[in-house]
Amino acid sequence: MNMDTMKMDMMMRRNNNNNKRERNNNKESSNNDSNNKLRSVDLSCMSLESLPIPSLDLATISKLDLSNNNLQNIPESLTARLLNLTVLDVHSNQLRSLPNSIGCLSKLKLLNVSANFIQFLPQTIENCRALEELNANFNKLSKLPDTIGFELINLKKLSVNSNQLVFLPSSTSHLMALKVLDARLNCLRSLPEDLENLVNLETLNVSQNFQYLDTLPYSIGLLLSLTELDVSYNNIKALPNSIGCLQKLQKLCVDGNPLASPPMEVVEQGLHVVKEYLCHKMNSSEDKSSQHKKKSWVKKFVKCGTFQGRINGGRKRPQHEGFTKLKHQSIDGLASPGGFIGALSPLRIFSPRRSFS
């Protein structure tokens, strides 16, 4: 074989290889386009009363939107085959329960079941360990699975507002990744005692539990990442002194509570004065019996670097000027609507509202 023939042969091979590569790239691109179509399936707002027999390979779907239909149930066989599902949205249907096979969705990150008639979440939901957001607002939940906090270790947002919850399971305090907890508009009698494990919690809303919620746990002062706390429209008469240790707290809503501590004149001066008042009260050694109860908590505060006072030796801290003579000041960013107007109203004197930020 002469040199020209060899060169031509090499060129032809090179062209063939390039053509093969191009065909493979086109094939991959076509497959990717096909997969992209399959990955997201939108069957929302179709007035569906039942799900049609799927013609798609369910294992290829990563997002399924069944919201705003009239579905009364989700077949067990359907969820069991959605092995790669990461988002499931079934809000605004007629669902009364979720299938037990939802525990098969090991890759699920977002589950929206809001605006249904669900009375309980299946225990198997704990197997959805990749879950980062659970929205179960506007249902008829009377309780959550007891061990939900031990298993959903990646959960960042838990929204269960507008239900019939009487309490949150104690395991809730183990949701260490949790950033937002919204449990307003329920019938909560209390909150879990050991909240200090919620080290990443930034927003806690337990407002509008009305006459049911009358106390907050002392451990609320160890939520070191907390920036927003809404306890408005409950039956709380005294805020825990530990709230004075929440260094990152920027917004505190206490509207509609019969607060006696802190008193009204402190509340009206804003969040920074309230925090100073509560911190001073916790540091004070005047109340011996109360001090005895707080010793274990104080150790925790010292460990976390949020407590600056002394409680031993009977030594009193110098009293802050702001507590001997409290002066009314205007507050920037009142938490309640029309806060400035309400503050000037004569009816304000008789109102139980306590709000500030």
Write up what this structure looks like:
This protein has 357 residues and is an alpha/beta fold. It has 2 domains: 61-175, Leucine-rich repeat, LRR (right-handed beta-alpha superhelix); 188-311 and 318-357, Leucine-rich repeat, LRR (right-handed beta-alpha superhelix) (Alpha-Beta Horseshoe), CATH 3.80.10. Helices cover 25% and strands 8% of the residues. It has 8 helices and 10 strands. The protein has helices at 3-39, 76-80, 148-151, 264-267, 271-283, 288-304, 321-324, 339-344, and strands at 40-42, 63-65, 87-89, 110-112, 133-135, 157-159, 180-182, 203-205, 228-230, 251-253. A 10-stranded parallel sheet has the order 1-2-3-4-5-6-7-8-9-10. α3 (148-151) links the parallel β5 and β6. The chain is elongated, with a radius of gyration of 29 Å. Residues 1-12, 28-35, 288-294 and 309-355 have low confidence and may be disordered.
**Radius of gyration, whole Å:** 29 Å
Low-confidence parts lasting 5 or more residues at pLDDT below 50? 1-12, 28-35, 288-294, 309-355
Write the CATH architecture name of the largest domain: Alpha-Beta Horseshoe
CATH topology of the largest domain: Leucine-rich repeat, LRR (right-handed beta-alpha superhelix)
